[in-house]
Amino acid sequence: MEKEKDFLQALPDAQVRNLYRIPTLSVKVDPQCMISYKGNKYSVDPRHLGKKLDLQAYEGYLYLYDNTELAAVHAIADKKWNYQEEHYTALTVYALKDDSEEIRQLAKKNLKTIGDLYDERNDDQ
């Protein structure tokens, strides 16, 4: 252990370290299990409902963390609502307290309908 100490070097000064730091925002998960980023919404699993998550945006993706746990990853998009199917399904199961295959299929169908409606609205604008 003492031998290794001789080879350690001091960390670079704060100015250099800050060049590599990824900015982190604090965001709150709303009742629809969504967070907001630059006017658009992105989904997370319902177990994060009401929590504050850390958001990091880099290389075209959003990374959401609940403490040290990676809660979700989303490609940054121009769409207003960005639900991942597993998040929407989990929210539906959570809200209805029913984990049947019928509910899971209904959630999948509803999510497609929501996506189609948003696509149509965006085409009209």
Tell me what the structure shows:
This protein has 125 residues and is α+β, with helices and mostly antiparallel strands. The chain has one domain. Helix content is 36%, strand content 27%. It contains four helices and seven strands, in the order ααβββββββαα. It has helices spanning 2-5, 14-18, 85-96, 101-124; strands at 25-28, 34-37, 40-43, 52-58, 61-66, 69-75, 81-82. The strands form two sheets. Strands 1-4-5-6 form a four-stranded antiparallel β-sheet, with no helix packed on it. The protein has a three-stranded mixed β-sheet with strand order 2-3-7, with no helix packed on it. A hairpin with a 2-residue loop joins strand 5 (61-66) and strand 6. The longest helix is centred in the C-terminal third of the chain and has 24 residues, at 101-124. The chain is elongated and about 65 Å long. It starts with a helix and ends with a helix. The mean pLDDT is 87.
**Spatial order of strands in the largest sheet:** 1-4-5-6
Overall number of domains: 1
Strand proportion, as a percent range, falls in 25-35%
Put simply, the count of helices is: 4
Structural class: alpha+beta
Structural topology:
Blueprint (H helix, E strand, L loop, with lengths): L1 H4 L8 H5 L6 E4 L5 E4 L2 E4 L8 E7 L2 E6 L2 E7 L5 E2 L2 H12 L4 H24 L1
Parallel strand pairs: 3-7
Antiparallel strand pairs: 1-4, 2-3, 4-5, 5-6
Features:
alpha+beta; 3-stranded mixed beta sheet
